[in-house]
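Final report, Chapter 2: Outcomes

The project's central promise was a pipeline that accepts a single protein chain and returns its three-dimensional structure in a standardized token representation, suitable for archiving and comparison. That pipeline is now operational. To close this chapter, we reproduce one record exactly as it appears in the project archive, with the input sequence first and the structure output second.
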Amino acid sequence: MAPSAIFPRDRVTIVGVVNVTPDSFSDGGRFFAGPEVCVEGVVSEARAQVAAGAHVVDVGGESTRPGAEPVPREEEIARTRPVVEALAKDLAVPVSIDTRHAEVADAALEAGARIVNDVSGLADPAMASVAARHQATLIVGHLRGVPETMQDDVRFGDAVADVGDELAASLDRARAAGVPDDALVADPGIGFGKRLEHNAALLAGSGQLRVRLGVPILVGPSRKSFLGALTGDPVAERDLATHAACAIAAFAGADAVRVHDVEGARRAMAVALALREAGQGLA
């Protein structure tokens, strides 16, 4: 399914987050029963997200929070493949696999996923080829380095320009591997190797990135630490700030938002899209 169908300009696509990890910063361990993933619990949560307005459900089996340790590929596949298979059979919306690893993406696509969400910007050189072979939509994220060290030495001149240039290079690598333009999405990597001011600039600059890159833009500020720095809220209380950030990005031109609280995002996106359309009408 091409981004033109999943990420049409006449809506803001809502991507619901389902983490099957014991250590993600917001919801780690939620879907574990002892050492095993509770697939039934994940399916129930995904159904609720779709009922609340999610257009895509994104499944992740490795935490990419700052300082997170890498997960062996076999373990990441064991966490995600049965979940993806169950969701692909159960849901009427596309399932996405959130992974940095081509082997994990391949297993998930074989199990029924239709989207690969790679926050690393194709750090695994085989990732784009896997997406191309499966004719999957590929979300190319922006990340310098790896999650373990990404916040150690953060430097940008102009964050929007620098991230735009680096995403453009990643998108070109995807095209060279056989992924067509209509199967590409870009994510500026909010919270991935950025400081508060960089995250703010990238959210407000979503429209500039849309024009610069020529592909749909997805943003994922949900519950991240820069929102806590702005509001003083702990992780569990950052949904209101998340919706404000998402609404600003959507108003500026973002095509999609990745969130934990789908119901609140649906309402915020309805307002943002109406205001965006009104602003375009006045231009």
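Archive annotation: The longest helix spans residues 262-282.
This record, like all others produced under the grant, will remain available to the consortium after the project formally closes.
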